[in-house]
Amino acid sequence: MASFSFQFTETRDIQGEQMFYSYVNFDQSVASRRKALTPYSIVCKCTSCVKATPATDKLRSEFVQRIQEVRNQQAIWKANPSYYLDLMLGLRRDILNEGLNGTVSYASCPQAIYLLYRLLKQPRKEKIFFEFKKYNRISKLDLL
Ligand SMILES: [Zn+2]
User: Fold this and answer.
1) CA of 44 to the centre of ligand 1 (A)
2) What is the pLDDT of residues 30-86, one digit of tens each?
3) How far is the CA of 33 from the centre of ligand 1 (A)?
4) CA distances from 97 to 10, 12, 33, 68, 108 (A)
């Protein structure tokens, strides 16, 4: 902070992609983000801020916990994999719509979907959700 500079380390290959740094936390409400940006004289005009609603604020505050709750049920997924798959697909849709797929927590979502399609023996769909591998991180989910 003394030099007001940052050092970043990539955790995956970055080629031709724009890098972003957020001045606020992803889980903050739009009101809280606006308040946090005021000292920088920034009025954010990103889609998430412009189109924020109470529902998107709620999603931001809850999505990490919601992913975790499904992950915590992994031992009983086999009893009703379609139910958990629907939960995760719906959550993933909401996360993508809100642009939260750049968060570290998101990686567990496609991984869970991948595992659930594997449980349901749907290899074509399973393959699509192998995308979680691009995050190049060790997930806390055990492979079934
Ligand atoms: Zn914004």
Assistant:
1) 5
2) 999 999 999 999 999 988 899 999 999 999 999 999 999 998 999 999 999 999 999
3) 8
4) 25, 24, 18, 19, 17
- Residue 138: pLDDT above 60? no
Tokens of 8: 């970043």
Distance of CA 96 from the midpoint of ligand 1 (Å): 15
| Cα of 42 from ligand 1 centre, angstroms | 10
Per residue in 97-129, pLDDT (tens digit) is 898 887 878 888 888 999 999 999 998 888 888
- Pick the closest to residue 59 from 95, 30, 31, 84 (CA basis): 95
Do 94 and 63 meet the contact criterion of CB atoms below 8 Å apart? Answer: yes
Better-predicted residue by pLDDT, 140 or 33: 33
Q: List the end-to-end C-alpha distance of the chain, in Å, as a whole number.
A: 44
Q: What is the CA radius of gyration of the chain?
A: 17
Closest by CA position to 60, among listed 47, 76, 48, 69: 48
Domain range annotation of the chain? 53-135
Q: What angle do CA 93, 85, 13 make, to 5 degrees?
A: 60
